[in-house]
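Support reply, case 0932

Customer input (verbatim):
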Amino acid sequence: MPGTVLLLAASPVGRGCLVDAASVLPVLAAVAPPVLSGTGTANVVELADPLEPQAVLTRLRAAATAPGPLTMFVTGQLQLDRRQRLPHLALARTTPATVRYTAFPWRWFADELRLRPPGSTTVFVDLHADPDAWEFLAGRPLTAGPAAELYGRVAPPPSRRAMGRPTYMRAVATLLRSGHRPPLGQLHEQALARLSGEEGGRPGAADLVLAPGRSWAGQPWPPAPEFTTVTAPPRTPAAPPLPPAPPAAAHAPAPSTVVPVPAVSVPAVSVPAVMVPAPARAERPGGPPAADPHEEITAAVRDGRHEDALALAARREREALRTYGQGTEQVLHWMEVRADLAMFAGDAERSCRGWLALAATRLDAGQAPGAPEVESAVDRAHHQWGRIDDPERARELGAELARLRQRVPGRREGALDHVRRQLRQLQTQP
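Our regenerated output:
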């Protein structure tokens, strides 16, 4: 089966540039595609200094849904947005004041890769961090999600008069130009050895080195959480965790039954795919591991038994409500699962209602309108609303969505205006 290779090099234009990211692309492009991917044949997609986050998201989503192994080479610089203080890959138009709107959120990599089968995805990175991002990363691991093996390094900010160089990625490309692709761990270590000789310092003394199982900031690398094929926004549980999905559930369902969340057709809204982290599997004292409700739901979705899957999730939501109470993370989890299951079933109206209810519940529980979980729920409700065919139902839910959009405008400007325009058009339809 042919593989897919995504070459992405991005950095701002002008004084904010920390690294000459695009300089490594000619070296990578000189490597034969089968060597880059480790497969007999491969398709190579190259993105050099892209301007818009949506352009990167579109190419990433296409690569993530392609069959066969996926290998990504990402070079650039990390910056934090000023509002949520989350890492972004800076793009050509990014400035410190516009990170939130012009850069690519790093978490979108994990979001888009979440349904890929384990062992089929490899990401090599060579990143330079600005001072804020460097401080942020000192105690937090950078990952591409549990479905991907991540190798590479994050370098500290260069001195004011110096421009960082993607020497790690250049070393990887140079090694691959020989025509031999060693095991990934060996390739990574060989690149670090070359990096040490070229820069005159020991890799890891200043850089943050990324590799499966490696320690981070003096702490053991946290084990990758398990993920289910039923999707929902990531979050930190505030109460005892739910039963998790088993490793097998990380595999994507058959394309004929479950598909990744498509790109939003609304210019004002961006809805990356999202994921459900699952804690370690519980065990009964003196007995086998407790049954995982996600297994049965995943099997039902894979078999096309969407109503059965929805009924199972609804039952779990009622049980969580009785056990933990309204507004708890256990209940919110199953609300999210039901909304996504409705989407998988092609029921846009039910999915929209579910996301609207979830957003309202989170707000009523005191979560901020700018919280990622709240924004994600409203964005996904907006996305599903645009797929409702019945004008009467669309008008009804559109009015509710407009009220929510006044409180939760989201990451993209114009989302509320879009809802209002669409509602005006709907008023003319029977």
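We compared this against your earlier run and they match. Two observations from our side: Residues 24 and 170 are 6 Å apart (CA to CA). The beta strands are 3-10, 42-48, 70-80, 87-89, 104-105, 121-129, 148-155, 208-210, 226-227, 277-278. Please reopen the case if you see a mismatch on your end.
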